[in-house]
Amino acid sequence: MQPKIFARTAIATAVVAAMGAGVFTAGHWFPQEASAAAPLTASSILTANAPLPDFTGIVERNGPAVVNISVTHAGKTAANMPQFEGMDPDSPFYEFFRQFRGAVPHGGQPDRGIEHGQGSGFIVSSDGVILTNAHVIADASEVTVKLTDRREYRAKVIGSDKPSDVAVLKIDATGLPTVKIGSSASEKVGEWVLAIGSPFGFENSVTSGIVSAKSRSLPDGTYIPFIQTDVAVNPGNSGGPLFNMKGEVIGINSQIFTHSGGYQGLSFAVPIDLAVKVKDQLQQFGKVSRGRIGVTIQEVNQQLADSFGLKTPGGALVASVEENGPAAKAGVKAGDVILKFNGHVIARSSELPGEVADIKPGAKATLEISRNGSSKEIEVTVGELKGAKLASADTPNQEHGRLGLDVRPLNPDERAQAGAKGLVVEQASGPAARAGIQPGDLLLAVNGTPIQSVAQLRALVEKSGNTMALLIQRNDGTIFVPVDLSHKQG
Description:
- The chain is an alpha+beta fold.
- It contains eleven helices and 30 strands.
- The strands form five sheets. Strands 6-5-2-3-4-8-7 form a seven-stranded antiparallel β-sheet, covered by helices on one side. Strands 24, 25, 26, 27, 28, 29 and 30 form a seven-stranded antiparallel β-sheet that branches. It has a six-stranded antiparallel β-barrel with strand order 10-11-12-15-14-13.
- Strand 29 (467-474) and strand 30 form a beta hairpin.
- The protein is elongated, with a radius of gyration of 26 Å.
């Protein structure tokens, strides 16, 4: 089974020469089985009140404001180009990206002078301010902007923000066509959207689709609440605008999910509401200041909700609290579930980082948390975001067999190494193993209660219901693991 790959889609060069011609099929269409009494027909689906959308007006008005961006990387070769973060060098997609970054020119030998790449962008003010993705212009020694009328300008990078993947460029021109900025918050899942960009270097290409999901978090280390669409986005589209049916920009096309290196139906855009906030800070201060409270969080599923006494899954479960951080000083503990931030309901954990980041460092914020089944409010002073394997013992102690764990206390040296108290997992079977707990894990807490001894763990297991939430430390990370105790140990 191939690994999941989330890839930024910016870089595309020498497409025709490198790719050649080809035809790709997207898969099979399985129509919904219709009732014999009332068969589905074209007229029953497409009524006069629901015609297919016409994108021509949007393209005519906004196409001239979408630009092609070419970047030059001086003094780089295939050997010393930066590696693609989180990508296996043995992956076919790694080779794809390496080639399309211009590492191997037509002669077949690495060009030791310059490297080229391409992406997209869009003009947001008539005096030449342009928005694009940060990864499009990352490490570029020269950035060139090409308009649809074939004029070209050397661009100045006003600022670039890697966490949000937003960059601001400026060209020396006036009277330029601009896009209209909309609101990503007002868009709904299922609405039609349109992308304009330069996939594989084919400038001002237009593709369309619908909003598939909102506030989608990706495993790429960012806090961006992405807009997911099924709009065809490919290398070279990155940095280009995503339009709604009003002709307003609601996002910046940034990433795709792919096994092949190309579009496979899953595209992700940076919400324009977030991008504009970043743009304004970059233009005014040259950098972006973000708030932080110093917690690691995770999603609350049904089992975790049951374990922590929540009526329904929701909020952000605190898996760990940074020592002496803002949250720790305010009294937040691992096992707390953050339900609201400054009065805003946190329906999913992915919503919290963006809410916190928007707060000015030094300002006060109010958290509504659930702890031991009761809710309370905590005031926290927001800080500023700055950019061990355990040894095993000879004799394990087994807790109650209902959980399926062999554990033992830490010795003093291990406690100092781990920087925490808890029980070392020697063996895992039954419910614990099915939940993914492994030998070498450090068990820190059960349902938010810190664990100090095997006897304490046994007592908590005996009086638990059908689910438990175990706080596990593995290497340098901590996470709550829901365990279903309704099954017998296997």
